[in-house]
Write a structure and sequence with these properties.
InterPro entries: Alpha/beta_knot_MTases, tRNA_m1G_MeTrfase_C_sf, tRNA_m1G_MeTrfase_TrmD, tRNA_m1G_MTases_N, tRNA_MeTrfase_TRMD/TRM10. Homodimer. There is one protein chain. The protein is of the alpha/beta class. Helix content is 29%, strand content 19%. It has 6 helices and 9 strands. It has helices at 19-26, 63-73, 92-99, 116-123, 141-153, 201-219; strands spanning 2-7, 31-36, 49-50, 60-61, 78-89, 103-107, 127-132, 186-187, 190-191. The structure holds 6-chloroguanine. 6-chloroguanine binds next to strand 5 and helix 5. The site of 6-chloroguanine (6GU) has 12 residues, from strand 5 and helix 5.
Length: 232
């Protein structure tokens, strides 16, 4: 999979060289390229922002550098992601969808955002997604793009060594994950649930399912189908 990132802070993305994604990158499974938006400016100060039309606080990212950057990066296969708190919610389903695409382009806005005409113009030549991580505000799209790249990237075949580890995870079946334990069987007086040491695989599977339901009901009841919430 090819991923391009456009940002005024390319150094944020050095973490993509670490751990699983780093290995996928050096192994050629993920081809990730990070671009400095300021390289697409032409003035001495490499200006990327200006005052908002209509007035108000903060600055807006100018359309011209974004247009030139996307002219250079887009292909016929591109899906363009604009991370923004005003976007649709990014979920495990979105990650799965993105992981199946040929070419992702992440456009990281700063300040009060990117001139909306950049998004509208990009829609005329590529599929465009405005996506949010959740209902809180970050200083820019960089950390959000990183989260989306990691969530989608680890679902690309070959990135995670043992694909079975992707199956029994939180959100893959719509429920939170069951709790995990390892040795020793007793630690600081706390026991590993005996069923997990019983060798009874059917009983273990049933216990894990019950734990998933209990945890989801307690922590994230809105994830459960209505008839399973216990509400009237
Ligand atoms: Cl995608 N961007 C920003 N700036 N803030 C966010 C976000 C994205 N998702 C949640 N908060």
């Amino acid at each position: 999979m090819r991923i391009d990132v456009v940002t005024i802070f390319p150094e944020f993305f050095s973490v993509l060289d670490v751990s699983l994604l780093g290995r996928a990158r050096s192994g050629g499974v993920l081809d990730i390229r990070v671009h400095d938006l300021r390289d697409f400016t032409h003035d001495r100060h490499r200006t990327v922002d200006d005052t908002p039309a209509g007035g108000g606080a903060g600055m807006v990212m100018k359309p011209e550098p974004w247009g030139e950057a996307l002219d250079a990066i887009l292909t016929l296969e591109s899906t363009v992601v604009f991370p923004t708190p005003a976007g649709a919610l990014f979920t495990q389903g979105t990650a799965r969808d993105l992981s199946e695409r040929q070419h992702l382009v992440f456009c990281c806005g700063r300040y009060e955002g990117i001139d909306q005409r950049v998004i509208e113009h990009t829609r005329t030549r590529a599929e465009v997604l405005e996506l949010s991580l959740g209902d809180y505000v970050l200083n820019g799209g960089e950390v959000a793009a990183m989260a989306m790249i990691e969530a989608a990237g680890r679902l690309v075949p070959g990135v995670v060594g043992n694909p079975e580890s992707l199956v029994e995870e939180s959100h893959e079946d719509g429920l939170l994950e069951y709790p995990s334990y390892t040795k020793p069987a007793v630690w600081r007086g706390l026991e590993t649930p005996p069923v997990l040491l019983s060798g009874n695989h059917a009983a273990i599977a049933a216990w894990r399912r019950e734990q998933q339901l209990e945890r989801t009901r307690r922590v994230r009841p809105e994830l459960l189908p209505h008839e399973e919430t216990g509400d009237a």
